[in-house]
Amino acid sequence: MPTDRASRLPPVPGARPGATPGANPCPSPCRSRWPAPLRCSGRPLAGALAGALAALLLLLPLAAPPARAEQALTLPTPRGEPLVALLDRPDGAGPEPVPLVVLAPGQGYHMALPALAGAARRLREQGLAVLRFDWAYHRAEPRGRPSPALAREVEDLRAAVAAARRLPGIDAARVLVGGKSLGSLVAWRVFAEDPALRGALLLTPVCSRPGADGGPGTAEAAANYPGLAAEARPVLWLQGDRDPLCATALLWPQLAALAGPALRVAVVGGDHGFGDRRLPAPQAALATERHVDAAARLAAGFVQDVLAAPPAAAAAATAPPAAAGPAASPATPAAAAPSPATPATPAAAASSPATPAAAR
Fold first, then answer.
1. Helix (H, G, I), strand (E, B) or coil at 122
2. Predicted pLDDT at 50
C-alpha cells in the first residue's frame, strides 16, 4: 500500500510535466521576479488575487444557521399539568409585535396533523404567529380521554390564550382563537367568555350526530355553539362537504336560524379530516392535501380580514356572510354543491354545550 500521500493528490494547475510535487511550478523568470507568496506559473497578479481572496474568506465569520420558525414550548395550566405546544413565528418578523392565532386540537387529532399544521403554515406566511398545542390527555400514559363537560379542556385553552398574550413579540391586543372538531367546541366557549379575542376560527365544527341508518342524523349546532346568533365578532365556520359530524343537509337549515351578523361559512371538499376515502391511496392523499390547503388559505384570508378592521368595526367588515362552494380538485369526484348562500335570519338559541362522542 503506498505511503506517499503527496503521490495521490491531484496535479497542481500550471505545473510542468515531471515536476516534483510541492516544488515551485513557475518558470525561472517568475521565480526571480516575484516573491514566493505571489508566484504563479507565469500569472503572478492572478495568483496574488486568488491567494488574497482565499485568505479573506478564511477570516470571514461563518454564517449563523437560519432560525427555526417552529419553537417547542411547554405551557403551564392551573392544575399543574403541562401542555406541549408549538409556536410558529412568521419568517422575517421585524421589531413590531405580530398578531397570533391559538389553535386547539381535536379529540384525537393532534397539533402536527395536516389541518392544523397546514393552517399554521399559511397563517405564518401571512405574517401571523400561531400557537398550537395538544390536550394534556393526549400526552398521558396511558392515553386519556376528554374530561366531563370538557372542563379541563376549557382550562387548557384558557391557559394557552393567557400564555400567548405574554409571549415576547406578540401583540396581545390582536389574538384570535380557533380549534378543530372538539377543539372548536372548546374554542367557542373560551371565545364567548373573552371579549378581547378578535375572532373565532371553527375548523370542522360539530353540527350533527350521524344517524344510525346512515342518514344525516340529529342537528346539534345550537347545543354545541350557544349564542352563535347573537355574536357580533367575526366567526369562520369551515368544514368539508362530506363531513359526517356536520352533514350539509342539516348545516344550512341550522345556520338559517343561528347565523349571526358576522358569521362566514366556507365548505371545501372532504370529510371530517378534509380527506376522501372513496379514492385509492395515492389520489386520496393528493385530494386531502389540496382540501387542507384550500381550508388553510380560507382561514388565513379570514384572519387577515379580521385584523385589517378596527376591533369595533370588525363585525361590519366581515358581513354579510357568504358560503363558499366545495373547492375543486382534479383528484376529487364532483360532489353535490351546498346551498348557494347562508341565510342570515338570526334567532337566539340557548342550551348547554354537548360533547359529541365521535368528535375528533
1. helix
2. 52
